[in-house]
Write a structure and sequence with these properties.
- The complex is a heterodimer of chains A (297) and B (536).
- Chain A has helices at 18-37, 52-78, 84-116, 140-163, 167-194, 212-218, 226-258, 268-293.
- Chain A has 297 residues and is mainly α.
- Chain A folds into two domains: 1-81, Helix Hairpins, CATH 1.10.287; 83-296, Cytochrome c oxidase, subunit III, four-helix bundle (Four Helix Bundle (Hemerythrin (Met), subunit A), Up-down Bundle), CATH 1.20.120.
- Chain B has 536 residues and is mainly alpha-helical.
- Chain B has helices at 20-25, 30-59, 70-106, 114-133, 165-193, 206-237, 251-285, 292-306, 321-333, 335-349, 358-380, 386-389, 393-423, 429-455, 470-500.
- In chain B, α2 packs antiparallel against α15 (470-500), α3 (70-106) runs antiparallel to α4 and α5 runs antiparallel to α6.
- The longest helix of chain B has 37 residues, at 70-106.
- The chains are: A mainly alpha (297), B mainly alpha (536).
- Chains A and B meet through α1, α3, α6 and α7 of A and α1, α4, α5, α6 and α7 of B.
Chain lengths: 297, 536
């Protein structure tokens, strides 16, 4: 069956080195993380405990991201390859990506509620565990909530400015959003640093069943409060990474807004960033209510 | 990798695709990427199958013959499970057949995100490399490699395995999860947004339906696995205590999270198998699938239920009686839509004009084997029986009937069915039938005795066993080696087909093969549907 010239609007992407280069970067990151984390493993020789292979892999991944998305922007803005049906695909894709992210957070909230709702199914005697003094939600965490909600309004302001062709307004609103995002990240780090409980077993590396926690458990004591800090810091840390990534995404959009990439009808890159931003705000709100307020006991 | 799957020389004139290694390494073409997926699955299947040969060789007789260090046996069992699930069955059914067929069947020129598609593929070999590398570093005190089973249950994977091998496995799973999530996003978007004019959801071929449901299951389940193994990693290295009771943690949490992922994920592996069998049965009975829409919605129902029945794997983990009862009902409810699918295939055969070509042989065998596996599944779904059968060879028999044979038979059915379409050559029918009969007898001799062994109490994942189990284990090992011989015949069939180069016509199967891909040349040109087909 002969296939004549292209008579559809779908985007047939040119061959690209980025997938294989990015996959190699991920591989180096992962194997580098194994070297980095296993500081005492003799089998790695000089590689044990060095962070550099991880760093090289990370750099390659970031380079791939920059190059890949530069190509996407070129295809959209310069080549005009993004017909309406392609933009619709991009929307589907972003929504589905956010859905998968939501399920990733579901795992962490599952862990939290597993202990916060059913502490008696484990070795705990209540929630929060005995001896844990939680953070006061109505101080820095509340301020963080206010900052994020404000950034939600500024990003919507930016959207309206783009839709009405108000470039100056869009740049101003996006700048404010980025500043608020950075502020929140700093605030979250500060709040976590002030937390009056430790990260798991105070960051102690895992050892076999001879460490004090295990032996004391055998004696009927145990450091049962370690679970509180474990989930608290992991969940907050992963949220913080997402806020930082969303901030970078918005900062890229700010750069594109300054260059005039966005028109009232074509600005999906910005919309994707805004969707992602609203998603992390919602996750923070759930975290604030579930972990900071409800989980305080 | 000869020039066997060079597409350029089959008579289409305007082929402007890149040549040489760049064509594949930089590929953004769904057909080339799908072909790479298929060959990757063949390689991984030989590796994982080779491990199972060693496992059965060890289990052929009581005592330790091959693995003086039983840890190594555990490592092979772990590797076999992970390779077969993540690097053979999933890449073949979803990456390979899905990538080849979804755009062709819905009349789309390519997938929605061709570059992302390439990333999905390229993450896999690197993930596989990490898994292989784990064999060369320490696991637990027993030696090299991760021997904690494909489920990676804590504390076997935390305090039980201080060496870095488990880290390699965790990272391999992280990468594989990313690959699968990206692939799922791609398939859902393609199916929802790129169907050609007139291809409504209800007209969509069954295989596309199965991939749609599968993609949703994987999209929702895989991130939960990513979360669970991140917690494992944190417990191993950052001093957290998610699964460590000494720190107030809960080992059961890992099992809950893992099976919340694994139940839908394993279901997701079976659905494309159903889709393939539907096409093959319809083509060789020369009848449309009986109750096409009923099968499609039954698959959607299977997907829903798979998210509500994960703890049917945890009956012996200390759940309350009420919880076990709920999950028993949920797991048994799965039977209803599954029977809808299987009986619809039988109804398709009923009164059909049947020809037993190689794909049809595999498809009919699939119906038999999946029924056997499904029946033992009903037994295992009962919390009253589970304490007796949990952790025995009976579970091995069950899972190998539903995955080890059914899913693989579906892959072979699809392989022989679409081989002429994908590669442009006809397979040797005699060799294909020899392959089928050897494999069919081999797997049944290998796996049916495991029922008896499990019922009489033989544990799984153990390198040695009591002399009382010797007889059936010997039989089972003979069956495994016969199956291995079947794989050799399969490889001979491949070499023969690519050497003889018997050109295939557009549709070698006749009137029963009705989907869009049979209207294209064999193999299809590099770019298809430059003008979208109108479906009436």
């Amino acid at each position: 069956m002969a296939q004549g010239e292209v008579k559809h609007d779908y985007h047939l992407v040119d061959p690209s080195p980025w997938p294989v280069v990015g996959a190699l970067g991920v591989f180096l990151m992962m194997i580098g993380a194994a070297f980095w984390l296993n500081k005492t493993y003799a089998g790695f020789g000089v590689l044990a405990g060095i962070p550099w292979i991880f760093a090289i892999g990370l750099a390659l991944v970031l380079y791939t991201m920059a190059g890949w998305w530069r190509d996407v922007i070129t295809e959209s803005v310069v080549e005009g390859a993004h017909a309406p049906v392609v933009k619709l695909s991009l929307r589907y894709g972003m929504v589905l990506f956010i859905v998968s992210e939501a399920m990733f957070f579901a795992a962490w909230f599952w862990a939290w509620f597993n202990f916060a709702l059913f502490p008696y199914d484990t070795a705990l005697t209540g929630w929060p565990p005995a001896g844990i003094v939680p953070l006061d939600p109505w101080q820095l965490p509340l301020l963080g909530t206010v900052i994020l909600l404000t950034s939600g309004t500024t990003v919507t302001w930016a959207h309206h400015a783009i839709q009405t062709g108000n470039k100056r307004g869009a740049i101003l609103a996006l700048s404010l959003t980025v500043i608020l995002g950075v502020s929140f990240t700093v605030l979250l780090a500060t709040a976590c640093a002030q937390a009056p409980f430790s990260f798991g077993f105070k960051g102690a590396a895992l050892t076999a069943f001879t460490d004090p926690a295990h032996t004391s458990l055998a004696a009927g004591q145990g450091n049962l409060g370690a679970i509180y800090g474990s989930i608290f810091f992991m969940a907050n840390g992963i949220l913080g990474i997402h806020v930082a990534a969303g901030t970078v995404f918005l900062a890229v959009c700010l750069g594109r807004a300054i260059r005039g990439h966005f028109t009232p009808t074509r600005h999906f890159g910005f919309e994707a960033a805004a969707w992602f931003w609203h998603f992390v705000i919602v996750i923070w709100l759930i975290l604030f209510v579930a972990v900071y307020v409800f989980g305080r006991g | 990798m000869s020039d066997a799957f060079e597409i350029a020389d089959v008579g289409t004139v305007h082929e402007d695709h890149p040549r040489g290694w760049r064509r594949y390494v930089y590929s953004t073409n769904h057909k080339d990427i799908a072909t790479m997926y298929l060959w990757f699955a063949v390689v991984a299947g030989i590796a994982g199958g080779g491990l199972s040969m060693l496992i059965r060789a060890e289990l052929m007789e009581p005592g330790l013959q091959i693995f003086k260090n039983p840890h190594l046996f555990n490592v092979l069992v772990t590797g076999h499970g992970l390779i077969m699930v993540f690097f053979m069955v999933m890449p073949a059914l979803i990456g390979g057949f899905g990538n080849w067929l979804v755009p062709l069947m819905i009349g789309a020129p390519d997938v929605a995100f061709p570059r992302l598609n390439a990333l999905s593929f390229w993450l896999l070999p690197f993930s596989f490399a990490l898994l292989i590398l784990s064999l060369f570093v320490d696991g637990d005190a027993g030696g090299r490699g991760a021997g904690s089973g494909w489920t990676s249950i804590a504390p076997l994977t935390t305090t039980g395995s201080p060496g870095p091998a488990t880290d390699f496995v965790i990272f391999a799973l992280h990468i594989a999860a990313a690959s699968v999530i990206l692939g799922a996003i791609n398939f859902i978007t393609t199916i929802l947004n790129m169907r050609s004019p007139g291809m409504t959801l209800h007209k969509m071929p069954l295989f596309v339906w199965s991939i749609l449901v599968t993609a949703f299951l994987l999209l929702l389940a895989m991130p939960v696995l990513a979360g669970a193994i991140t917690m494992l990693l944190a417990d191993r290295h950052f001093g957290t205590s998610f699964f460590n009771p000494a720190g107030g943690g809960d080992p059961l949490l890992y099992q809950q999270l893992f099976w919340f992922f694994a139940q839908p994920a394993l279901t997701a592996v079976m659905l494309p198998a159903f889709g393939i069998i539907g096409h093959v049965v319809a083509a060789f009975a020369k009848k449309p699938v009986f109750g096409h829409l009923g099968v499609a919605y039954a698959m959607v129902t299977i997907g829903f239920i798979s998210f509500m029945s994960w703890a049917d794997h945890l009956y012996t983990a200390g759940l309350t009686a009420g919880t076990r009862t709920w999950f028993m009902f949920a797991a048994l409810a799965m039977v209803v839509p599954v029977v809808v699918v299987i009986s619809s295939f039988i109804a398709t055969l009923w009164g059909g004009s049947i020809t037993f070509k190689p794909p049809m042989l595999f498809a009919v065998a699939f119906i038999v084997l999946f029924t056997i596996g499904g029946l033992s599944g009903i037994v295992l779904a009962n919390p009253g029986l589970a304490p007796v059968l949990h952790g025995t060879a009976y579970v091995m028999a069950h899972l190998h009937y539903v995955f080890g044979t059914s899913a693989v038979f579906a892959i072979f059915a699809g392989w022989y069915f679409w081989f002429p379409k994908f590669f442009g050559y006809l397979a040797n029918e005699t060799l294909a039938k020899i392959h089928f009969w050897i494999t069919f007898f081999g797997v049944n001799i290998a796996f049916f005795p495991l029922h008896f062994l499990g019922l009489s109490g033989m544990g799984r994942r153990i390198a040695d066993y009591s002399d009382a189990y010797a007889g059936w284990n010997f039989v089972s090992s003979i069956g495994a080696f016969v199956t291995g011989g079947g794989v050799v015949v399969f490889l001979i069939m491949l070499v023969e087909a690519f050497a003889k180069k018997r050109k295939a016509g557009d549709n070698p199967w006749g009137a029963g093969a009705t989907t869009l891909e049979w209207t294209l040349s064999s193999p299809p040109p590099f770019r298809t549907f430059n003008e979208l087909p109108k479906i009436t």
